[in-house]
Amino acid sequence: MEERVALLRAYECGVFTVAELAANYGVSRTTFYEWKRRRDAGDERWFEDRSRAPRSCPHATPADVIAGIVAERRRFPRFGPKKLRARLVLARPDVAWPAVSTIGDILKRSGLIEAKLRQRRPLAQGEIVAGSEVPNGEWAMDFKGWFRTRDGKRVDPLTVSDTASRYLVGIRITPPTHDGVKAVLTRVFGEIGLPDAIRSDNGSPFGSTGGGGLSRLSVWLMKLGIEPRFIPPASPQDNGRHERMHRTLKDATTKPPAETWQQQQVRFNLFRREYNEERPHEALGQTTPASCWTPPRRGLPIKIDEPWYDPDHEVRRVRHDGTIRWRGETVFVGEALARETVGLVAVEARLRHDEHDAGCHVVRFMSRDLGLLDAAGRFRRFAPPRARLRSTSKPARTESE
Question: Total structural domains in the chain?
Fold first, then answer.
């Protein structure tokens, strides 16, 4: 403000031209003349900035229309802008009701819409090319869509198959919960053995929105030495072999469904034997999955060891609420890791993406990076690495071949 006053004083001395003064003070000549006009008009505060907002808006929504929108919202507090406008148009078609977006803005200004808390997006880790050309290098796991048997009981079939040989490892009716899936997998692992990896979607109980996409189930799998692989969201084609098996399973066993869930399970068992041992598979050169598959070499261990970390890691045990203590602060890393140990290692300078990574530590569980813990104690979780299925051009070969 002092510079503006000095500008006008310098002009009054008659030494400088308007163009010279405008260049010296970094303003346009139009601005100079505007300030001069205000001062000459007697405005005592001529040197202050003024609002650029228009004094009137001819397109503003009339007050009576706003009142009608607010009243309708108070009458139907669960209706959104679209439904409110539809009701208002039906009730008073003679009124020019504003657009849906404008109605939403009016509701926000009136305090009738609560802002939703947006969850911070995870840091992308890229995707990994997955799949296996050898039996038990990867299994696929998913729930076939639920249905009801004729007695009205809900049926949720969990299916597990080998990616390379298409061997149908198991079909079992179980609740779509952590305990239900874990019980089925424990039985399968005990009877058959352990694969190197299991492919699934991101939904519960297989995955989560937490760090690294891990759920309690995937944490258990990792402790067994099985890598959880998650397909990209809304991409069933990346588990296409398994989904194609589901279509055959549905046609053969659920049209119509059985009388009871026990009878339905018998149908699934018979289908599994036929699918593996009698049905030729085109992708396998018209051989059966059983002829291309051999049991895994690893069996279910009697005792599961604790995770191990390199000496450069600082180890913390996750508490029951999913938090750890770090530099005197409580940091949430994920409830799926409750009572497990995690390792924290400083980010090397050559691996930093930007200056914000200085002082950061990578938080990891076994081989899976969960997120970045910055110097301020803020945890930024990683998204799970997405696994896209690699197609094989040749039929799967057994380990004996």
Answer: 3
Residues 22 and 132 in one domain: no
Q: Which helix (H) or strand (E) is 326 found in, with range?
A: strand 323-326
**Can you tell me the distance from the alpha carbon of 362 to that of 339, in angstroms, rounded to the nearest whole number?**
19
Residues forming beta bridges with residue 159, ordered by sequence position: 142, 171
In this structure, the answer to whether residues 137 and 256 fall within a common structural domain is yes
Instruction: Tell me: do 279 and 327 sit in the same domain.
Output: no
Query: Higher-confidence residue: 332 or 58?
Result: 332
User: 157 in helix, strand or coil?
Assistant: strand
My answer on whether 279 and 201 are in the same domain is yes
Q: Assess whether 191 and 337 both reside in one domain.
A: no
The whole-model pTM stands at 0.70
Contact of 211 with 381, CB cutoff 8 Å: yes
Mean pLDDT of 243-266: 95
**pLDDT by residue (tens digit) across 129-164?**
767 889 999 999 999 999 999 999 999 999 999 999
Q: Is the pLDDT of residue 273 over 50?
A: yes
Same domain? 318 vs 273? no
Nearest-angstrom CA–CA distance, 18 and 7:
10
Q: Which residue has the tokens 């198991």?
A: 170
Mean pLDDT, range 115-119, rounded to an integer: 74
Task: Identify residue 241 by its one-letter amino acid code.
Answer: R
Mean confidence (pLDDT) of the chain: 89
Q: Are residues 277 and 352 in the same domain?
A: no
Query: Which pLDDT does position 376 carry in this prediction?
Result: 85
Both 225 and 257 in a single domain?
yes
The CA distance from 272 to 384, in Å, is 32
Domain that holds residue 31: 2-40
- Amino acid (1-letter code) at residue 262: Q
- What are the backbone angles phi and psi of residue 317, rounded to the nearest 5°? -95, 130
Encode burial over 83-117: b for 16+ CB neighbours within 10 A, e otherwise. Answer: ebbeebeeeeeeeebbeeebbbebbeeeeeeeeee
